[in-house]
From TrEMBL, chain B:
Family of this protein: Belongs to the CcmF/CycK/Ccl1/NrfE/CcsA family.
Transmembrane domains' residue ranges: 6-28, 40-61, 95-112, 124-141, 176-196, 208-228, 248-265, 272-292, 312-329, 350-371, 391-409, 421-441, 447-466, 478-497, 604-624
A Gene Ontology molecular function term of the record: lyase activity
Organism placement in taxonomy: Bacteria, Pseudomonadati, Pseudomonadota, Alphaproteobacteria, Sphingomonadales
Membrane topology of this protein: Multi-pass membrane protein
Function description: Required for the biogenesis of c-type cytochromes. Possible subunit of a heme lyase.
Pfam families noted in UniProt: CcmF_C (PF16327), Cytochrom_C_asm (PF01578)
Subcellular location field: Cell inner membrane
Residue ranges of every copy of the Cytochrome c-type biogenesis protein CcmF C-terminal domain listed in the record: 314-626
GO biological process: cytochrome complex assembly
Keywords, sorted A to Z: Cell inner membrane, Cell membrane, Cytochrome c-type biogenesis, Lyase, Membrane, Transmembrane, Transmembrane helix
Protein name: Heme lyase CcmF/NrfE family subunit
Length: 139, 642, 180
C-alpha cells in the first residue's frame, strides 16, 4: 500500500510540475488566453478571429485549437483588442504586420489571393461550359 | 525461410504482372500469342500475393525478430491483435497490403467478369498489371518488407504507443482498399478507351468496384473525422488539414464517378465524363498518398513522412496519370457522343451533381496546393478553414438543392410542373425552418441556417423515390440510394447544428466550483492522478447536471514520456440530442489552485458520423443488390428500358 | 464534354493540370522547405515595451534602451532552451568583438536565468523578462533563440532565427557595421 501512495504522490508531482518546463518554459498564461469575454457578441467575434489565425509554434493549427504558449499569448491579444473595440479585420492586419500573410488562414482578396477567391465561380462557369453540349433542346 | 518465401512470391508476382503487361501490349496490335496468358497470369499473380502477404503476417504472428520490419515495428509482449495489425501498421506492410488487394482484384476480375468483351477484359487486366508493377517495383527496390536484420535483437522496438489504437489499426487499410478499388476503375476506364468499348457493359462491370471503393472511403473519412474530434481535444471535427483534404478529394471524385457511371450503365450517356472521373479519382488517391508521405505540405497528422518514398510515389503518380490523360486526350474523340437528354431529367440532375462535386474537389485541390504555388513565387501564405468553409459551403448547398429534385426526375426528359407540389413543399419547409431560426435564434450564421433548412427538406425528399413502388419488388439499389441520400441529410443536419448552435465555456475551476454551458451545470468534483503504461495524467472528475439528471465525466491531461508529449483526453457525454465535451488542462500557472476546464455543448454533433455511416450503409445495400441480382446478358440495346 | 471539334483543347486540359501539379510537387520536394516564420517587423521601428529585469543584478529592458544611437544585437533566449546553451560561446565571441548585446528571456524564472548566466556566461548589457511572451508577439518573433540587429534609432534591421553558429558571427558583425 505504501509504495502505491508514494507512486501516486510522485505522479501528482510530475503532473503538476509538467515537463513543459523543459520544452516550453514556464510562465503565467495571460489572463485572456483561456477566459472568455463577458460580452457574448465580442467573444463570438474574437473566436472567429482566433480560428482564422495560424499558430506560430505548431503545425497547421489555428490559435484557437492549440495548447502552445505562443497561441495562448495570441488568443489573449485577440480578446484584448476585441475588448478594446478593435475590428476583427484590423486585428488580423495587426498580426499580419508582425508575422506576414502566413499567419492568416484566410488570404486577402487581392493580388494572388484574388484568383483563390474567384476560383469557385470560375470553376462553376467552366463546368457549365463543359456541360452545355450534353443537353438537347426541347423539341 | 518464411521471409524468403514471401520475397520470392513477391518477385514471381511481379514477373506475372510483367507478363500481363507484355501480353497487353501485343493486344494493341490485334490478338498476340501472349494474349491467352493474361487471364491465367492474373490469377497466379493474385495467389502469389496472398502467399507473400500471408508470409509477412506469419512473421508478425511469431514475432520473427530477424526480420527488420518486425523488429522495428513489433514487440514480443504485444497483444495478438496488435501483432497482426502490425503487418500493415507500417509503410512496407501497408504497401504490400495495397499491392496484394490490387492483385486479388485483378484475379477476381479475371475469374468473375463476364459482362465485357474479352478484348476489353484483357486490356483491363494488362492496365491493372501495369499499375501493380509500379508498386511491385516500389516494394522490391525501396521498401522490401522481408529484409533481414543481422544480428536479430531480443525484444523488438514496439509500435508507437499513440498508434496502438484499434481504430488506427484499421483506418489506413480501409482507405487503402478504397484506393485500390479506384485503381480498378482506372484500369477499366483506360482499357475501355483503348478498345473503344465505352458503353453500358463497361459501366456495369466497373460500377461494383467504384461502389465498393466508395463505401470504404466513406467509412474511412467518417472514422477519421471522429478520431480527430475526440483525440485532438478542441472539439473540431474537420480541420481542412492537408492530410484530411488528401482523403476527401478521392472521395469527392468517387462520389461523382458513382453517379455518372450509373447514367452510363442505365442510359448510355455521359461517356467521356465517366472516363474522365475514373481517371481523376485514381489520380486523387495517388496524390493523396503522395501528399501524406512526402511532407511537402505542413500537417497536424505528420506521422508517416518520408521524402524519398514520397518521390517514388510522385514518379508513379505522374507516370500513370499523364499516360492515362494522354490516352484520354487522343482517344476520347473516337468515343461517340452518348444518348442525348434534356436539362430537366435524371441525367441533368446527375450532371449537376458531377459539376458541383467536381468544383468542390477543384476548390479543395487548389486551396491545398495554393501555399506551395505561392512559395514558388516567394510568398508565404496559408489557406485554412475560413477559406475552405466559405468557398465550398455555397457549392455544397447548391448540390443539396439539386439533390432535392434530381432523384425523382424521369430519365431523358421530364417537366418541372409534374413535381410542382413537391417543389412547393420543399421550398416551404426550407423557408419556414430558415426564417424560424433566423427570427428566434440570434447570431446564427447564414450557412448553418441554410444547411439546417435544406437538410430537413432533404430528409423528406430522400424517401420520395420509393413513392408508388411496391416495396418488396423495389430493387435494392433504389433502397441504397434512398438510405445514402437520407444519411447525407442527417450528416449535414449534424454539421449545421454543430456549427450554428455549439456553446463553449472556457474557465478555471477549483475543486467544488461549477461552470455553466448551454443547459448544463458542470461541477469540478475532484482532480486526481492516474498512471498509464507510459504516461502519467491528471484526471478531473466532473459532475454534469441537466435538470435532475446527473452524469460523471472524467477528462484527462496526459503527460507521455518517450517521446515527451502532452495530450488532452477529452471526456464525452453522449445524449440523443448532442454531446457534452469536456477537456481539462494542466494547472493554471496563475497559481490559485484552479484547473483549466474547457466545456462544449455540441447539439446533434453525433449526427455527422451517424449520417456518414448511413451513407456507407446505403452504398452497401446498393452493392448487395448489384452483386446478387445476376443481370441477363446485356443485349446491345437493352439499356433503353432499364 | 462531347467530342466537338471546337473544344478539343479541353481534352488536353487534364494533362496540363497534371503537368502543373507535378511541377509543383517536384519543386516542393527539391527546394528545401523554409519552415521558419520570419518577422514582418524587419525594417520597422521597435514596438513600445518595458520589461522588468529577468533576474537579480541585471537591468530590465525597454524599447528606449535600444534606441540610444548605437546599433546593437537583441537576443531572445531562455534558460530552458537547449540551442540557447549552444549559442552562448558565440554570443560571448560577438561581445569580445565589440558588439553590444541586450536580451529578452522568455517564460523564465529569475533563479533559472541566474543559474543559466552563471553556467554559460553573461554577455548581455540588459535582460528583460517576457513571461507572457507579449513582447515576443509584438516583435513578430516565433521562438527561441532569435537574434535581432537593431539600428541606433531603434529600427529592426535584421532577424536571425535559430542558434548563432560560428559562421554567423562575422555576418552579424558585418550587419552591425553596416548599421553604423
Amino acid at each position: 500500500m505504501m509504495w502505491r501512495l508514494l507512486l501516486l504522490a510522485s505522479v501528482l508531482l510530475l503532473a503538476a510540475v509538467p515537463q513543459e518546463s523543459m520544452a516550453q518554459g514556464s510562465g503565467p498564461t495571460p489572463e485572456l488566453a483561456n477566459r472568455q469575454l463577458t460580452n457574448p457578441a465580442q467573444e463570438k467575434a474574437a473566436t472567429q478571429v482566433m480560428h482564422a489565425l495560424r499558430c506560430i509554434q505548431c503545425q497547421g493549427q489555428s490559435i484557437a485549437d492549440s495548447d502552445a504558449p505562443m497561441a495562448a499569448t495570441m488568443r489573449a491579444e485577440v480578446r484584448q483588442q476585441i475588448a478594446d473595440g478593435k475590428k476583427p479585420d484590423a486585428i488580423r492586419q495587426w498580426m499580419i504586420e508582425r508575422y506576414g500573410e502566413w499567419v492568416s488562414f484566410e488570404p486577402d482578396m487581392k493580388g494572388s489571393g484574388l484568383l483563390l477567391w474567384a476560383a469557385p465561380l470560375l470553376l462553376l462557369l467552366l463546368g457549365l461550359f463543359m456541360a452545355r453540349g450534353l443537353f438537347r433542346r426541347k423539341s | 525461410m518464411i521471409a524468403e518465401t514471401g520475397l520470392a512470391a513477391l518477385w514471381l508476382a511481379a514477373a506475372m504482372a510483367l507478363l500481363q503487361l507484355v501480353g497487353g501490349l501485343t493486344l494493341l496490335r490485334g490478338e498476340g500469342k501472349l494474349t491467352p496468358l493474361i487471364k491465367p497470369a492474373a490469377l497466379v499473380q493474385g495467389a502469389l500475393c496472398v502467399v507473400s502477404f500471408a508470409s509477412l503476417m506469419w512473421l508478425f504472428y511469431v514475432t520473427d525478430l530477424s526480420v527488420l520490419l518486425v523488429a522495428s515495428n513489433s514487440h514480443i509482449d504485444k497483444p495478438l491483435i496488435f501483432k497482426l495489425a502490425g503487418t500493415w501498421g507500417n509503410h512496407e506492410g501497408s504497401m504490400l497490403l495495397w499491392v496484394s488487394v490490387l492483385s486479388l482484384s485483378g484475379a477476381a476480375i479475371a475469374l468473375l467478369e463476364k459482362r465485357i468483351d474479352t478484348r476489353t477484359l484483357n486490356a483491363t487486366l494488362a492496365v491493372q498489371a501495369f499499375v501493380a508493377l509500379g508498386f511491385f517495383a516500389f516494394l522490391l527496390f525501396s521498401s522490401n518488407p522481408f529484409e533481414r536484420l543481422v544480428p536479430a535483437p531480443v525484444e523488438g522496438a514496439g509500435l508507437n504507443p499513440l498508434l496502438q489504437d484499434i481504430g488506427l489499426a484499421f483506418h489506413p487499410p480501409t482507405l487503402y482498399i478504397g484506393y485500390v478499388g479506384l485503381s480498378v476503375a482506372f484500369s477499366f476506364a483506360v482499357a475501355a478507351m483503348l478498345t473503344g468499348q465505352v458503353g453500358p457493359a463497361f459501366a456495369r462491370a466497373m460500377r461494383p468496384w467504384v461502389l465498393g471503393a466508395w463505401i470504404f472511403l466513406t467509412v474511412g473519412i467518417t472514422a477519421g473525422s471522429y478520431w480527430a474530434y475526440y483525440e485532438l481535444g478542441w472539439g473540431g471535427w474537420w480541420f481542412w488539414d492537408p492530410v484530411e483534404n488528401a482523403s476527401l478529394m478521392p472521395w469527392l471524385a468517387a462520389t461523382a464517378l458513382l453517379h455518372s457511371v450509373s447514367v452510363l450503365a442505365t442510359r448510355n450517356a455521359l461517356r467521356a465524363w465517366t472516363i474522365m472521373l475514373a481517371l481523376v479519382a485514381f489520380a486523387m488517391s495517388m496524390a493523396g498518398t503522395f501528399l501524406v508521405r512526402s511532407g511537402i505540405l505542413t500537417s497536424v497528422h505528420a506521422f508517416a513522412v518520408d521524402p524519398e518514398r514520397g518521390s517514388f510515389i510522385l514518379a508513379l503518380m505522374l507516370m500513370y496519370t499523364s499516360l492515362a490523360f494522354l490516352v484520354f486526350a487522343t482517344r476520347i474523340g473516337t468515343v461517340k457522343q452518348g444518348e442525348p437528354f434534356q436539362i430537366v431529367s435524371r441525367e441533368g440532375g446527375i450532371v449537376a451533381n458531377n459539376i458541383f462535386l467536381s468544383v468542390i474537389l477543384a476548390i479543395v485541390l487548389i486551396g491545398t496546393l495554393y501555399p506551395l504555388a505561392a512559395e514558388t513565387m516567394g510568398d508565404k501564405i496559408s489557406v485554412g478553414p475560413p477559406y475552405f468553409n466559405k468557398a465550398t459551403a455555397p457549392i455544397a448547398l447548391l448540390l443539396m438543392v439539386a439533390l432535392l429534385l434530381g432523384p425523382m426526375l424521369r430519365w431523358r426528359r421530364d417537366e418541372l410542373k409534374r413535381h410542382k407540389y413537391w417543389l412547393v413543399g420543399f421550398f416551404a419547409i426550407s423557408l419556414w425552418t430558415g426564417v424560424a431560426i433566423w427570427r428566434f435564434v440570434p447570431g446564427v450564421g447564414v450557412f448553418p441556417i441554410l444547411g439546417l433548412a435544406l437538410s430537413l427538406a432533404l430528409a423528406i425528399a430522400a424517401w420520395v423515390p420509393l413513392k408508388g413502388r411496391k416495396l418488396l419488388r423495389t430493387p435494392l439499389p433504389v433502397f441504397g440510394m434512398v438510405v445514402a441520400h437520407f444519411g447525407l441529410a442527417v450528416s449535414v443536419f449534424g454539421m449545421a447544428a454543430e456549427s450554428g448552435f455549439s456553446r463553449e465555456t472556457l474557465t478555471a475551476l477549483a475543486p467544488g466550483e461549477s461552470a455553466k454551458v448551454a443547459d448544463w451545470q458542470v461541477k469540478l468534483d475532484d482532480v486526481r492522478p492516474v498512471v498509464g503504461d507510459n504516461w502519467v495524467a491528471i484526471e478531473g472528475q466532473l459532475i454534469a447536471r441537466n435538470g435532475d439528471k446527473k452524469f460523471i465525466l472524467r477528462p484527462q491531461s496526459r503527460q507521455f514520456y518517450r517521446p515527451e508529449q502532452q495530450t488532452s483526453e477529452a471526456a464525452l457525454l453522449t445524449r440523443w440530442n448532442g454531446q457534452l465535451y469536456a477537456v481539462i488542462a494542466q494547472p493554471d500557472e496563475n497559481g490559485d489552485g484552479r484547473w483549466q476546464v474547457r466545456l462544449w455543448w455540441k447539439p446533434f454533433v453525433t449526427f455527422i458520423w451517424f449520417g456518414g455511416l448511413l451513407v456507407a450503409l446505403g452504398g452497401a445495400i446498393s452493392l448487395l443488390g448489384r452483386m446478387f441480382r445476376r443481370p441477363k446478358k446485356p443485349a446491345v440495346n437493352k439499356w433503353a428500358q432499364a | 464534354m462531347g467530342a466537338g471539334m471546337n473544344r478539343t483543347w479541353l481534352l488536353w486540359l487534364p494533362l496540363a493540370v497534371v503537368a502543373f501539379i507535378g511541377g509543383l510537387a517536384i519543386y516542393g520536394l527539391v527546394v528545401p522547405k523554409d519552415d521558419m516564420v520570419h518577422s514582418a517587423m524587419v525594417g520597422r521601428k521597435l514596438p513600445e515595451f518595458a520589461l522588468p529585469p529577468a533576474t537579480v543584478g541585471v537591468a530590465g529592458l525597454s524599447n528606449r534602451d535600444l534606441a540610444d544611437g548605437k546599433p546593437r544585437l537583441l537576443n531572445i533566449f531562455a534558460s530552458w532552451c537547449i540551442p540557447c546553451k549552444a549559442e552562448a560561446p558565440y554570443l560571448e565571441a560577438l561581445k569580445k568583438s565589440g558588439a553590444e548585446i541586450d536580451a529578452i528571456a522568455i517564460r523564465d524564472k529569475p533563479e533559472d536565468v541566474a543559474a543559466f548566466l552563471a553556467e554559460f556566461g553573461n554577455p548581455f548589457r540588459r535582460i528583460g523578462s517576457d513571461n507572457e511572451m507579449a513582447v515576443q508577439l509584438k516583435l513578430g518573433s516565433s521562438g527561441v533563440p532569435e537574434t535581432y540587429v537593431i539600428g541606433g534609432d531603434g529600427t529592426i534591421l535584421y532577424q536571425h532565427i535559430g542558434d548563432i553558429r560560428a559562421e554567423h558571427v562575422p555576418m552579424l558583425l558585418e550587419k552591425l557595421r553596416e548599421a553604423q
